[in-house]
Amino acid sequence: MIDVILKKGKEKAVLHKHPWVFSGAIETVKGKPANGDIIRLLDSKKDFLAFGFYNDRSRVAVRLLEWDENIAVDDNWFRDKVRVAVAGRAHILADGSTDTCRLIFSESDYLPGLIVDKYAGHLAVQILTSGMQNAMPVIIDELNTLLKPESVFDKSDATSRSHEGLETTNVLLAGTHPPELVMVKENGISYGINIAEGQKSGFYCDQRYNRLLLATYAKDKKMLDCFSYTGGFTLNALKSGAASVTSVDSSALALETLEENIRINQFEGTAHSAIKSDVNAQLRKFREDGEMFDIIVLDPPKYAPSRSALDRASRAYKDLNRLGMQLLNSGGLLATFSCSGAMDMETFKQVLAWAALDAGKQVQFVYQFHQPEDHPVRASFPEGEYLKGLLCRVW
Ligand code: SAH
User: Fold this and answer.
1) What is the pLDDT of residues 198-211, one digit of tens each?
2) What's the whole-number average pLDDT of the chain?
3) Exposure string (b/e) for 40-69, b if CB count within 10 Å is 16 or more?
4) Domains present along the chain, CATH in parentheses
5) Which ranges carry the PUA domain (predicted)?
6) What is the pLDDT of residue 211?
7) C-beta of 204 in contact with ligand 1 (< 6 A)
8) What pLDDT score does 198 carry?
């Protein structure tokens, strides 16, 4: 095994069990590891620190796996991590009302660069590091042993793959090709998931409980679901007896699937409409038309991909939320989210306070939304925390 030696004083984060080593922290590499190889990381005094995946194409040159020198990172090591992660999700699936969740969440589950989402009997994986690419045969074998999935589909079309010098993929790894729409259940509601063509791996299961909580406010209310995708918030609100729900998204495929989901759940009789539009433009149009709502959901895509983009993203979040607040009836509810890891909850509250001032509104934070337990956060890896939201009462 090849030794990678850190510069003097660069071992602190590693000793704190942070799983990333940036290329700038490395003094020497003893030999020529292939990208994806497991290496031994040593401090400047040549003392062992940890084992990790090496990749000289990535800014994160080493992704750490194991800090105990006496534990071999072999097939059994990977199998064990998969078993522990899958077992930790069992309670989510136990009562049968939900059969979709995230089974493996990358660094947070000690498997850097691997995401596995369960869609009923099908699995969608994202492999974002070359080390994990090498480990896939044993990981797939363990997933097959534990879950006997009908298919394992590789949906690794994330830009992060390019940082590791990996090609984008969209291929079947095991089993038979999943149908165009895989049927899943979440909170007792059925969804068709387009694994191959849909966004991310097909569904945003990180909003599971947030949809449920918001739906408890929805009865007899007029709701606007912005960035609706395939209707997670929309369908939960319709099930809870919302007076009407309008869903807005710019993706035609997402809205097509949403309409299909309305039929599947036999909500055709409910007052629902879908608008294919840019959300900002549509909110301005509602303002011109004098259209008002009781509940508004704002669940935009990631505005701040990195810390350096935070200022600009904060302005975008502020403008969006100001528009939303202006369209609420007095005492109405705004459920507003940010899935930008770079934006923490305190900053998000500040952004909303500015939005309220600009909108001429008073805002009360009623509830703080976050990511669910199948998206855990490792104490030593706060970067794993990304989804946050606020339920705001607006006057
Ligand atoms: N709320 C959804 C998930 C939202 S994901 C759920 O519960 O499943 C973000 C969505 O925003 C995607 O569906 C994407 O198509 C849409 N989107 C991105 N930019 C947009 C824009 N400017 N206007 C409207 N929709 C947009």
Assistant:
1) 777 789 999 999 99
2) 96
3) bbbbeeeeebbbbbbbeebebbbbbbbbee
4) 3-66 (2.30.130.10), 75-182 (3.30.750.80), 204-394 (3.40.50.150)
5) 2-87
6) 98
7) yes
8) 78
Q: Whose CA is nearest to atom 12 of ligand 1?
A: 229
Q: Which atom of ligand 1 is nearest to the CA of 211?
A: 7
249 close to ligand 1 (CB < 6 Angstrom)? yes
Could you tell me the distance, in angstroms and rounded to a whole number, from the CA of residue 336 to the centre of ligand 1?
Answer: 13
Contact 246, 275 (CB under 8 A): yes
Counting residues of the chain whose pLDDT is more than 70, the rounded percentage is 99
**Which range has the worst mean pLDDT, 9-13, 149-153, 156-160, 280-284?**
156-160
Query: Whole-prediction pTM value?
Result: 0.96
DSSP 253-295: HHHHHHHHHHHHTT-TTS-EEEEES-HHHHHHHHHHHT--EEE
Atom in ligand 1 nearest the alpha carbon of residue 337: 1
Q: Is 281 in the pocket of ligand 1 (CB under 6 A)?
A: no
Give the DSSP per-residue string, 343-389. S-HHHHHHHHHHHHHHHT--EEEEEEEE--TTS--BTTBGGG---EE
| Mean pLDDT confidence for 229-248 | 98
CB of 233 closer than 6 A to ligand 1? yes
Distance of CA 229 from the midpoint of ligand 1 (Å): 5
Does the CB atom of residue 381 touch ligand 1 within 6 A? no
Residue whose CA is closest, atom 6 of ligand 1?
232
Residue 282 Cα to ligand 1 midpoint, Å, equals 13
- Indicate whether 30 pLDDT > 80: yes
**Predicted local distance difference test score (pLDDT) of residue 196:** 84
Distance of CA 205 to the CA centre of its chain: 8
Give the Å distance between the CA of 250 and the centre of ligand 1: 7
Residues with a known catalytic role: 339
Name the band, by pLDDT with cuts 50, 70 and 90, for residue 356. Answer: very high
Is the CB of 232 inside a 6 Å radius of any atom of ligand 1? yes
What pLDDT, on the 0 to 100 scale, is given for residue 115?
96
At 245, list the tokens.
């729900």
The residue type of 27 is E
> Which candidate, 17, 18, 57, places its Cα nearest to that of 36?
57
- The finding on whether 229 has its CB within 6 A of some atom of ligand 1 is yes
Rounded CA gap, 198 and 34, in Å? Answer: 33
Of residues 162 and 339, more confidently modeled: 339
pLDDT at residue 201, as a whole number: 76
